[in-house]
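Quick note —
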Amino acid sequence: MIKPEIFVRNCELPDCPNRRGLWRNLLEPQQGYSLEGRWYCSPECFELAAATAIQKLIGGMGRPQAKPHRVPLGLLMLSRGLVDDEQLKKALRAQKDSGGGRVGEWLRHIGAVSEEQVTQILGLQYSAAVFPLERSKRYLECAHMVPFHLLEATGMIPVHHLPASRHLYVAFGDRISHSALFALEKMLMCRTEPCLGVKSLIQRAIEELRKLPHDTEILAAGITDPQEMAGTILDHAENQAAADVRISGFDGYIWARVFFPPAHTDLIFQAPKTPRAAPPKPSK
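Predicted structure written out below.
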């Protein structure tokens, strides 16, 4: 909750039921709540704005993502002489017979390539660098930037941060999630750069991060309704006299960060699998 201001501010909610006259605004101190830098005059307005933002995020998660056109991993390996025709056909048959799995994993399973080779080719496929996790533990310095639960759930880790230019390098094991990168940029107000990392080394790094304290994050298990999520966020904003709240989401999770400088609290919710069509309503 922001402190009273001496200047006039208008609530950002278009249908705000608490519209006040000009003289009342001038004579009375204004208290309110900030959501992503936008001011709301009351708990009800803040909660409705937060629930609406969450509903949009959940709706976006339900839309199919367009797949970028990339040369198939197997063909890249074949063209670079890492595998031969027979090895690739064997891996593809195994993939078909099992009903799934990645070609790179099946090529590893039959002993045709190493995990490092798969990662290098993935880097070519995504046009992304491969971060040397075996030589650098800079990820320990970035651990506080993203809630551990999200790192564990998505298999990504921030590996290098440049505060001066506000660049954050994020490593993925096999699939670069652009929705995750967008969410990080919105939350951290930085520019993200994706890179690849050997999957087993990323998992080892995540296990190392698991041992660190995670006092600033709260997993709100069982809360999947947007209005209930908004109410929970409002409770924390009020209890901590928050200066601002930001909300984002990716890969089935809603992430709210409640700022009360110089600290913050992260709230993690699991989004419902089926988006709700009805618009959210403020609680009474």
